[in-house]
Write a structure and sequence with these properties.
binds (2R,3S,4R,5S)-2-(hydroxymethyl)piperidine-3,4,5-triol, about 725 residues, Beta-galactosidase, Chain A, domain 5, 10-stranded antiparallel beta sheet
Length: about 725
């Protein structure tokens, strides 16, 4: 068992391979958080609970302590703790004091599924244990079950919460966080991953300060702006050293994550659904399930923290056939043609792609309704016969005959105002009666909180998949919500819409992906606007960003890799000058950056010179040799593209090593060349010092210790340059 309860000391001890998480049952009533960090074999916590009172703060239950000074597991407000609460409710009589006291526990092997929500899983009960602690407000019939899972072989602990109404009246939930953890000192930094369209997940590090620091989304999706992931790290933490606490919400909608440092310098960390525009009417007997938070602790810096997330997500979040299979190299026509294509052009591209060794052709936006721009037809998922006279079925067949698999773009959650769907069902979009329906990219969002809308999507998308030989789907979503409202919900449930939308979306994704298990699904939201573990549960890869510029991608992919695995990151070689930045980089650099992710192309292959074709052929061949271990290996970040105290961000380097340590792919990138800028070396890591490694294709052999301690000279000339190495252990 990786979770034990010691009756004597009233201590719950959760253990992963290298970490401990300890909770104490205080005076039989309150759950006090004692510790989370490096593993402690047999904790004796008699000295660990701080029991204090302070001026002005009332003593809890008129006893000799105050919850305001205690580290808690699931704090409630409006009592004697004045910090950020994890839950807020309104009872039928208007009172709001939820007094949640301990009411029993249960420890089970394995990990249960979460009803209607994505979550990490186990394949056998031996992989993890789960602790359920029940808290009850008996006076009011409110029950809260805290659920913790400790994985045996990965240093990850997941938390979630279920709220049950055992009273005879409705209870209004105004806030239900998934986790709250109290720490004792604020000698830490807060690291967030912020951005915008085209610049997702830029890493930012600021010292903790007193008061509240929050990351969140109120946009109806997890967002480009702030990823539902943050790290609390010791001041000295880097890739290999120091403490890193990661928090990642398995959810694709409005979220909150943050830290409050209180007057006693103690940080309270939390994560969950955003209370902004949220409430949930819980009727007698009903339950509310919060999403899961994945919490990872590393005492050896960011590297091990990231690799824990990567392995957990690669193997126990992502599902289906492509979890364990190498992903095909694709060509997407978006940046090659935008909306301007017909069957001949597509066939021409596919033939060119085949000659280069590419395996999958993806037809992007513009194939349906009368869509020749972004101003119409979303929702009308029937083929545009003017562009594609043989339909999707005919086109897929021709592409298959060329020797490529066929993939298709869809944006099922959307409706254009100029569409048959909107003309037929004007109330099927998210809107507020008598208010302007604000369009973004000329489109509105279908109201997935409504069952009939979800069924419509499942039927139409299912129909397309049924009809044609489609091996891949790119599932896009191109705007944020506005006028949050649903015609399907009564007035007192309007604030349920954002979360009900997510439940509807997950239901639709589950129904479609499980009905077509051989189809590879790629998530997308104007690039990486919904790059979160919620989506990864249904779709093993996500288009990382619409910014395909190689230099910009270094920061985007580096930031994304702090939490998400290489296999999840769609990365394409595109044309120059780059369509987003106008920057000109070499085909080699573009290839080397994209090869560090889930590889593909997105440019007009018909315009390539013979020389470029040969180079692409070589890249495709190279990636085919690398992908099995690049997509499933351990990633080590060696140089950061972000400016930090000891780094100017000019050089970026990383490597991926296969799990068995025999295959290595390493890459080094430089933005601008500096004359006499010093000697640069690629210093490898995670090799065996006494083993010998061959540099494939260069007929050179070095010992592991030399590669790690002395390194290889990186001789680069010019701007935007790159070097990659393939190493093999002999
Ligand atoms: C946004 C996506 O991120 C792009 O890759 C492309 O699919 C367009 N949408 C199509 O409208």
């Amino acid at each position: 068992m990786s979770i034990i309860f010691d009756e004597q000391s009233k201590v719950f001890h959760l253990q992963t391979s290298k970490t401990s998480y300890i909770i104490h049952l205080w005076r039989g009533k309150y759950l006090v958080h004692v510790y989370w960090g490096k593993k402690i074999k047999t904790p004796d916590i008699s000295n660990a609970v701080v029991n204090r009172v302070g001026g002005f703060t009332p003593n809890t239950d008129n006893e000799d302590y105050s919850l305001d000074y205690m580290n808690q597991e699931y704090p409630t407000g409006l009592g004697t703790d004045y910090r950020v609460p994890a839950i807020s409710v309104v009872y039928a009589d208007g009172s709001r004091n939820a007094k949640l006291l301990y009411d029993g526990y249960k420890i089970m092997s394995g990990k249960p599924k979460l009803q209607g929500l994505p979550a990490t899983y186990v394949e056998s009960d031996e992989e993890a244990d789960t602790l359920y602690i029940t808290l009850s407000d008996k006076l009011k019939g409110l029950k809260v079950i805290l659920m913790y899972t400790a994985f045996h072989n990965l240093d990850a602990i997941t938390r979630t919460v279920k709220v049950i109404n055992e009273s005879n009246d409705n209870i209004l939930l105004e806030k239900v966080l998934s986790a709250s953890v109290d720490f004792e000192t604020y000698d830490y930094d807060f690291i967030d991953f912020h951005g915008a369209w085209g610049k997702e997940r830029f890493m930012e590090r600021t010292p903790l300060r007193h008061g509240i620091q929050v990351i969140d989304s109120k946009r109806g999706s997890s967002s480009h702006q702030l990823n539902p992931f943050f790290i609390m790290a010791s001041k000295d933490a880097n890739e290999e050293y120091g403490e890193a606490y990661g928090f990642n919400l398995v959810y694709s909608g409005n979220f909150t994550g943050g830290i409050e440092v209180d007057c006693a310098d103690k940080p309270r960390v939390w994560m969950g659904i955003n209370e902004y525009d949220f409430s949930w009417k819980l009727e007698p007997g009903q339950e509310f399930q919060a999403p899961e938070v994945v919490m990872v602790y590393s005492g050896k810096g960011f590297g091990p923290m990231s690799r824990t997330y990567h392995k957990l997500y690669r193997t126990r979040l992502v599902r289906g056939k492509y979890r364990d299979e190498p992903r095909p190299i694709l060509i997407n026509n978006w940046e090659a043609t935008y909306f301007d294509f017909d069957e001949d052009k597509i066939i021409g591209l596919a033939k060119a792609a085949k000659e280069l060794g590419i395996e999958l052709f993806v037809l992007d936006d513009g194939w349906f309704g009368k869509r020749n721009g972004d101003d119409c037809s979303l929702g009308d998922w029937y083929v545009n016969k003017e562009k594609l006279p043989n339909g999707i079925t005919g086109l897929a067949k021709k592409i298959n005959e060329i020797g490529l698999k066929f993939g298709l773009w869809i944006e099922p959650e959307m409706v254009s105002v100029d569409s048959d769907l909107y003309r037929t069902h004007p109330d099927w979009c998210i809107h507020v009666p008598d208010r302007v329906r604000t369009e973004a990219r000329n489109q509105l969002i279908l109201d997935l909180s409504r069952k009939e809308v979800c069924d419509y999507i499942v039927d139409t998308i299912g129909g397309i998949l049924q009809e044609s030989d489609i091996s891949y789907i790119k599932w896009d979503m191109n705007r944020n919500m506005s006028e949050f409202g649903s015609a399907g919900l009564p007035a007192d449930r309007q604030k349920e819409m954002p979360h009900r939308y997510m439940l509807g979306l997950y239901d639709v994704m589950e129904r479609i992906t499980s009905a077509y298990p051989d189809v590879l699904f790629e998530g997308c939201s104007g690039g990486g606007g919904r790059f979160d573990p919620g989506i990864l549960y249904y779709m093993p890869q996500i288009w990382t960003s619409d910014d395909t510029d190689a230099m910009e991608r270094l920061r985007i992919q580096y930031g994304t890799s702090m939490c998400y695995p290489v296999s999840a990151m769609g990365a394409h070689v595109s044309a120059i000058p780059n369509h987003q930045t106008g920057r000109v980089t070499s085909l080699k650099t573009r290839g080397d950056v994209a090869m560090s992710g889930n590889f593909g192309y997105e440019l007009d292959l018909m315009k390539l010179t013979d020389e470029e074709k040969e180079e692409i052929k070589a890249q495709v061949k190279q990636y085919k040799e690398l992908r099995t271990f690049v997509q499933a290996g351990d990633m080590y970040r060696l140089k950061s593209p972000f400016i930090t105290t000891n780094n100017d961000g000019n050089d970026t380097a990383w490597m991926v090593i296969s799990e068995d340590g025999t295959d290595i792919f390493a890459a080094y990138f430089r933005k601008s060349c500096i004359v006499n800028g010093g000697i640069y070396r690629m210093k490898f890591t995670a090799l065996e010092p006494d083993s010998t490694y061959e540099i494939v294709g260069e007929n050179m052999k070095y010992s592991g210790d030399e590669l790690m301690e002395i390194g290889l000279i990186v001789d680069m000339w010019g701007d935007y340059t790159s070097r990659v190495w393939r190493l093999k252990k002999i």
